[in-house]
Prior knowledge:
The chain is α+β, with helices and mostly antiparallel strands. It has 4 helices and 7 strands. It has helices at residues 17-24, 58-61, 92-111, 126-131, and strands at 34-40, 47-57, 74-83, 115-122, 147-150, 154-160, 173-180. The chain has a 7-stranded mixed sheet. β3, α3 (92-111) and β4 (115-122) form a beta-alpha-beta unit.
Amino acid sequence: MKLDHGFGDVGNFFPTWQGFLERCTGKMPRYKNYMAYLLCKHDDNRIIGVLAVQLDTYESLISKVYALSKEINTYLYLSWIALDKEYQQVNYFALLFEFYHTLIRRFQRNLETRIGGAAIAIRRIRPILWNLLNTGTKCPIDTDAPIYQETSKITFVLYPSEMIEHFKLEPAQDHVLILFKSSRD
Length: 185
């Protein structure tokens, strides 16, 4: 079984629960330092969302995510953030994303190093990510130039996959650099 996210064009990209388990328990060597967190309903423990991350280095990720910064050596790669189709109108996405932010802060504290966020996000999620910025500006639809947006709490750099010669996947995707600002910045 797997989460019913409701997007048929994602196809076999999305792991099964067994796939997430194998990644988290080290049974798939390319998923070192992989963690999956489940969002469940309180009353019946039904899984309604998932956040999966992988702690990785700049050197390892740069061949996969093109919007990274050389100044940051360690990233918490956002492998999956998804909600059951019945709950996508509720504000659970922001809750999952805030948990992602919490994980980054925790890793920064424990590893005593700066941690960046990185992701390859399906294009339809761009407006959802944009809404997290709370800028009141319309989400850009550009696919021919990187998109940079900074707020007092977060910075996004969206790098459209159309700009990468050898990266043509369907559905269309963005490479994302996510920088959270700490109270010390």
